[in-house]
Amino acid sequence: MLFTLADARRDLDRLRPRIEQFLVMRADLAELRADLHSGGSALGGMAELKALEARVHADLEEFAAAGAHLKGFAPLLLDWPGMRAGADDSDETPVLWCWLEGEPEIGWYHRLDCGFPGRRPV
Hints:
The protein has one domain. Strand 4 (108-111) and strand 5 (120-121) form a beta hairpin. Helix 1 runs antiparallel to helix 2. It has helices at 5-37, 46-65, and strands spanning 69-73, 76-85, 92-100, 108-111, 120-121. The chain has a five-stranded antiparallel sheet. It is built from two helices and five strands, in the order ααβββββ. The protein is of the alpha+beta class.
């Protein structure tokens, strides 16, 4: 599935509530793991840890089912495959529309063969 930049931005907007929940769960999971390593936690025990891990995994699967490629977990990095018109509008290049946790919208892309270091502003 290929996304236009507008499609990818709409998809990100649709996923935002789930992403916000994911970020809270990811932080809770990190705290719970650290607390259980050193004794106990107000967030729960092993059962809660396993439940959080399952919920985090389910959210990541939901992002992928929407068409986003998960490229990073912390920070969350999502890419949507698309095509970008060349300088003369006749040539299209396969790209990934790239969103990094904390960015207000999808404002970057990179070629498939360049990855994150090749990010350019749209």
